[in-house]
Model the fold of this input.
Amino acid sequence: LARLFRMDPPGALALLDAAVPQDQAIVLKVLPHHVHLAALRQCLEAQAFGALILTRRRLDQYASYLKARETGIWFGANTSALRPEGGAEQALAFAGMLDAWLGDVARLCDGSGVARATVEYDRDLLPGTPEVRAQHLSRHLATLGFDVPAWEFPSASYFQRQDGTEDALDKFSNGLALGQALRGLGALDHLMSAFRPWPAPGSAAVDDD
Done:
């Protein structure tokens, strides 16, 4: 099935969907450009009930990308001790790629009539207790039409930080120089913020809490 997902994502998703009970839903995490946009459109139009678009500070995501590329481990590993060297121009290029991908996904959802909601890492997942995170996720799922009360979430938190470093620049071996270079380019504030898609069609005002 994993090989089929690489070769034919819509076909693999259809097979997986046929094997899942009707009262259950499949949740797939798609990283930037891991699925061609044309195939992703087919998946959305044929199978999707909704999409959660996860956003995070651009510089944090750049650091995560460098660490994953260096270690070959893309999830479930504690990378706090790893401090790669970052480049200002490369960071800007990565952020541009990431913004374009997230924007393309939002447009695909809107064009396919698929409901979407934005989960912001620093707002919805990072702060608070597991119960608070469950409340945030429950609210976003309700936007997609899923009635999952917060109290139905598992009591244990499945949220695991791969890097507990709070300051994004501290994740780099050359963090001070990288920050100065980005500031000189007038891009530091931009990279220290997260991409936020425009409001979905028919959605309420964006909640900044």
Summary: The mean pLDDT is 87. The longest strand covers residues 51-55.
